[in-house]
Amino acid sequence: MVAQASTETLARAVLAGSQAVHTARAPTTPAMPSLAWRLKDQEIADALTYVRGSWGNAAPAVSSDDVAAVREELQ
Ligand code: HEM
């Protein structure tokens, strides 16, 4: 997911957060908080660009416009 061509899912995870399902063996659902209220489009783009270019990843940068488009969709 981190290095895929479309950055929509990635931006969505940071903007809207995400919650896994709970199962009998893992009853406490792990969740990622929504960060839309806390981070600007450029800050999210910078963090995602960093992740996409580190630890051997070589995916293209994310722009603040990419993040803005997903933020708009989520409203
Ligand atoms: C800008 C900072 C962050 C970025 C870029 C980021 C990125 C991501 C991404 C891409 C996923 C989805 C992974 C996948 O499904 O393959 C994810 C899941 C998750 N994140 Fe974050 N995250 C950030 C901050 C945080 C913070 C602050 C927390 C906790 C306080 C957190 C907790 C989690 C958890 C628990 C999941 C798994 C949720 C699930 O299984 O549905 N993340 N994160």
Description:
The chain is mainly alpha-helical and 75 residues long. The protein has one domain. The protein is built from three helices and two strands. The chain has helices at residues 8-16, 41-52, 64-74, and strands at 18-19, 31-32. Strands 1-2 form a two-stranded antiparallel ribbon. Helix 1 (8-16) crosses helix 3 and helix 2 (41-52) crosses helix 3 (64-74). The chain is globular, with a radius of gyration of 14 Å. The protein starts with 7 loop residues before the first helix and ends with a helix. The mean pLDDT is 96. Bound molecules: protoporphyrin IX containing FE. Protoporphyrin IX containing FE (HEM) is lined by residues 1, 10, 13-14, 18-20, 30-33, 35, 47-48, 51.
Name some characteristics of this structure.
2 strands, globular, single chain, 75 residues, binds protoporphyrin IX containing FE, mainly alpha, two-stranded antiparallel ribbon
Describe the structure concisely for a colleague.
The chain has 75 residues and is mainly alpha-helical. Helices cover 43% and strands 5% of the residues.
What's the topology here?
Blueprint lengths: L7 H9 L1 E2 L11 E2 L8 H12 L11 H11 L1
Antiparallel strand pairs: 1-2
The structure holds protoporphyrin IX containing FE.
The site of protoporphyrin IX containing FE has 15 residues, from α1, β1, β2 and α2.
Average pLDDT rating: 96
User: Biggest β-sheet: count, sense, barrel?
Assistant: 2 strands, antiparallel
The helix content is 40-55%
Instruction: List segments where confidence is low: pLDDT < 50 over at least 5 consecutive residues.
Output: none
Quaternary organization: single chain
Counted by DSSP, the helix tally is 3
* Coarse shape: globular
Bound molecules: protoporphyrin IX containing FE
> What strand line-up does the widest sheet have?
1-2
In total, how many domains does the architecture comprise? 1
Approximate strand percentage? 5-15%
User: What structural category characterises the helix and strand content?
Assistant: mainly alpha
Order of helices and strands: HEEHH
Supply Rg: 14 Å
**Strand segment count:** 2
Distance between the termini: 23 Å
